[in-house]
Design goal:
mainly alpha; 3 helices; 124 residues
Length: 124
């Protein structure tokens, strides 16, 4: 009889992989901002419009990383309620946080921001 580890198995491994992917994406996005000289604090005025790294793919890669991380946690922990939390969090980001952030970016960078926003997807 084989030993069954409680955290082993394809669904749990998929959850762990999604969590690592989301966390890695978050770290890459934060590193890209920091490397450009931008503050990480929400609401702080950015010094530079970052359009490299994960920002080539998504205007808000930290939101994308957080959503993937929560999705992975729901799978890993087998907690469907975390899917609801992920959906509510993503809706709040899309409804209130991202529009306010994009307004700040448009004010700070004008045409550069508008060109970037037109060429790059908001989330994915």
């Amino acid at each position: 009889m084989a030993l069954q580890l409680p955290w082993a198995g394809p669904p749990l491994l998929a959850g762990a992989a999604l969590m690592l992917l989301g966390a890695g994406w978050l770290v890459w996005a934060a590193w890209s901002l920091k490397r450009a000289g931008n503050p990480l604090r929400h609401g702080a005025r950015p010094a530079v419009l970052v359009d490299s790294g994960p920002y080539r793919i998504s205007r808000h890669p930290m939101v994308l990383g957080g959503a993937v991380l929560l999705l992975g946690a729901a799978q890993l922990l087998r907690q469907p309620a975390l899917l609801l939390l992920d959906a509510v969090w993503l809706l709040a980001m899309l409804r209130w946080v991202i529009p306010a952030e994009e307004a700040r970016l448009a004010q700070a960078f004008g045409g550069w921001w508008r060109d970037y926003a037109q060429a790059t997807r908001r989330i994915v």
